[in-house]
Amino acid sequence: MRTQGTSLMLLSDGIIKVDGGCVFGSVPKVDWEQKKPPDRRNRVTMGLNCLLIKNGDKCILVDTGVGTKQSDSAKDKFGLGTSRLGREFRSYGIGPKDVTGVILTHLQFDHSGGSTRLDRSGAPVPTFPNATYYVQSDAWKQAIEPTERGAGYFNREDFMPLKDREQLCLLDGDEDVAPGVRVKVANGPAPGHQIVLVNYGGEKVAFMGDLIPTRHHLDLTCIASVDHDPEETLAWKREILKEAESSGWLMIFSHGHDQKAGYLERRNGHYSFRSVVL
């Protein structure tokens, strides 16, 4: 997609398989399995989607997928294959050094794992050496001191090198990080979770992070059981979906697999979803 000098590219780092009960929360399996049939280990397939924004001399990546550092046990548990993000970059003629900014919706491994890579000595270093990485302060605090409930979703090698190399920028609330690119805090999935809003011509494009990770989560009752505060997720979903419908946002889902983006529309007093291919 391209308009008035701004280019948007939806990239993929592959897929991840997650327990369906975790993905759909309080929704009974008899209901959710009709939408996303699980495998024999009760896992559903989800995408690892990232958004690349190019505008003038700015080249900004939103989320980084799981990356290349995952252990064999994590690969087996989550059905991970080879990281695809580097290949996706090359297909557009872009290299890691071209990226000027990385916005992380939060710091769980499936969104921040690709932020770092292992160098020849086996030490983790930033994947994008010229980029500033934008993270909310509350998200950083949770990641460096997670509770027992959330500890398994964070890997310090994914984000500590960003601080060590002085490439980390901690934010405290909604902020413009580049012309036409704004982050908006939408807590619930994690403290300091942020969505990303892009002015694209006369349209607003919204990368929804884990607030609305798939099109199925447009349903207000569908909230992941691993969310830090499900009731806060619900409150933010109500607010964001109302604005997305009234303002005609193009929504991009961080974990969408078959349907990765689309519009929420109201017909005959009811919401409907119109999927689009980017």
What would you say this structure looks like, in words?
- With 278 residues, this protein is an alpha+beta fold.
- It has a single domain (2-276), classed as Ribonuclease Z/Hydroxyacylglutathione hydrolase-like (Metallo-beta-lactamase, Chain A, 4-Layer Sandwich), CATH 3.60.15.10.
- Helix content is 21%, strand content 32%.
- The protein has eight helices and 16 strands.
- The chain has helices at residues 20-24, 29-32, 72-78, 85-91, 109-112, 137-144, 160-164, 230-247; strands at residues 2-3, 6-19, 43-55, 58-62, 101-103, 116-118, 124-126, 132-136, 168-171, 175-178, 181-185, 194-200, 203-207, 250-252, 261-267, 270-276.
- The strands form three sheets. Strands 1-2-3-4-5-8-9 form a seven-stranded mixed β-sheet.
- Strand 12 and strand 13 (203-207) form a beta hairpin.
- The N and C termini lie close together (7 Å).
Please outline the helices and strands.
Layout: E1 2-3, E2 6-19, H1 20-24, H2 29-32, E3 43-55, E4 58-62, H3 72-78, H4 85-91, E5 101-103, H5 109-112, E6 116-118, E7 124-126, E8 132-136, H6 137-144, H7 160-164, E9 168-171, E10 175-178, E11 181-185, E12 194-200, E13 203-207, H8 230-247, E14 250-252, E15 261-267, E16 270-276
Parallel strand pairs: 4-5, 5-8, 8-9, 13-14
Antiparallel strand pairs: 1-2, 2-3, 3-4, 6-7, 10-11, 11-12, 12-13, 14-15, 15-16
